[in-house]
Write a structure and sequence with these properties.
The structure is a homodimer of 231-residue chains.
Chain A (H helix, E strand, L loop, with lengths): L1 H10 L8 H9 L2 E5 L4 E3 L7 E7 L2 E6 L5 E7 L4 E2 L13 E4 L3 E7 L1 H9 L3 H25 L2 H16 E4 L2 E4 L5 H8 L3 H13 L3 E4 L2 E4 L2 H8 L4
Antiparallel strand pairs in A: 1-8, 2-7, 3-6, 3-8, 4-5, 4-7, 9-10, 10-12, 11-12
The first copy, chain A, binds a DNA duplex (30 and 30 nucleotides) through helix 7.
Chain lengths: 231, 231
DNA sequence: AACCAAGTTTGCGCTTTCACAAAGTTCGTA
DNA sequence: TACGAACTTTGTGAAAGCGCAAACTTGGTT
């Protein structure tokens, strides 16, 4: 656990209000786990026995409806808590969490949640802020689904991935994990066919490049334009 | 405030774990307000200076997108806390709250939130449970919008209103506040025209009755059927 | 080197649902 | 009780996007 401390100290807003020795206490109680790409970390409706912190990688949060259609509700970037059912007064996970790429996660038994919340000033507050951000995002997604056309929704989804999970390269901003047409369709309530047509067009227009399941955004401002109704 | 105590004691899950004298303390700090039908209680993005408990009536939670389209994300039944931005680590309201019918609300300054959460065992827990329920509903709405057709979404919306805000009458279950086609379209990401066609059909089929902005569900099980994809 | 699985592209017809339009109804209020 | 505002109904045409189908590309594996 020694190697982790340094990198943790800086990046983790969840723990940023903790003293160094408190942080050590917390880390000492955690278990570290590597999750390979595509594997589940937990499943919807499962007993919420643990909560997690994403150290490295990207987590995809998804649900299945009764007909078996998959819906992706959000992606989690490194540094965030997840699986925090307790913060929602729940004892099961409301959705499944999948490793969008290989992930390194810290794991605590859920029984420690109340401990942490009680003992460490600011821990709960930060957790609820995280919840608040997710609620905002869900709210936005509802608005988009309710009022926007597929093209706008896909443009927004790509932009969101870029902003939250992008890394700068010499050929534009690259989304940090593999993304297929199918996945974008599950994020936007569309079909992989329609998404394919849109991405092909945007590639022709040099708005983005996509190959090998990786997307580079070349011209974010034109993508922003496509986001608007009248475009 | 005396008259309230009795009715409150029973119904309010938010305070159900409080002792009688604690409850009195809490009530003594509240202000009571009547809000006429259609009037706002607070607006999206406003400074979250207060939080609320709905004693009587029904509150509609809505947002406007950049193009000015209204989206209704949920309705709140009597007995629930709302405007609890602090529970989401926010200092502005994430949406607007409107009186769907005349409402009676208790109001506390937001500064008391942390007080209550700290002092009254179970208050925070109940609040987070409420948040959790709303998150679940939002999740469901995202799934519906992403995967279901308009007819299914409208059927579900009517059923949800019936279950959460219905009162039994001799002519079926009546939704407890006025609901127009427009409102249903804003709940389902549809248009008032399409909703009108659906409701007319359902009325012909004796699944429901609707007049004077009031809807009675006559045959919930047939509505449930329409909820399914293959119907 | 060959093959398979996974992902992508593209065409075509069809359904759903919207947009626009216009008339009818009901409600509240002056 | 008359008027206007709000709400509803219904028709018609158009388009967005889906479903189905088939071919193609790419990457990984044996």
């Amino acid at each position: 656990m020694n190697k982790l401390d340094k990198s943790l100290l800086n990046s983790l807003s969840s723990f940023r209000r903790l003293e160094d020795d408190q942080l050590r206490e917390v880390l000492d109680l955690a278990r570290l786990r590597r999750v390979p790409t595509g594997k589940p970390i937990f499943e919807e409706a499962e007993d919420a026995k643990q909560f997690f912190l994403l150290l490295d990688g990207h987590v995809r949060v998804e649900r299945l409806n009764a007909e078996g259609d998959k819906v992706i509700s959000l992606h989690i970037p490194p540094g965030q808590l997840f699986g925090i059912a307790r913060a929602l007064g729940r004892d099961t996970y409301p959705a499944s969490a999948m490793a969008a790429v290989e992930c390194i996660v810290l794991i605590w038994p859920m029984s420690l949640w109340d401990d942490f919340a009680g003992r460490y000033e600011g821990f709960a507050a930060e957790a609820y802020k995280t919840v608040g951000q997710r609620v905002s995002e869900m709210n936005n997604q509802i608005m988009e689904l309710a009022t926007q056309h597929v093209e706008q929704r896909v443009a927004r989804a790509v932009l969101r991935l870029m902003k939250q999970h992008g890394r700068n390269t010499d050929s534009g901003v690259q989304i940090a994990f593999p993304v297929t047409r199918k996945i974008i369709s599950e994020m936007t309530g569309s079909t992989l066919h329609t998404v394919s047509r849109l991405l092909s067009r945007w590639e022709r227009q040099r708005i983005l490049r996509s190959a090998h399941r990786h997307i580079h955004v070349l011209d974010a401002s034109r993508l922003e334009e496509l986001t608007r109704q009248d475009a």
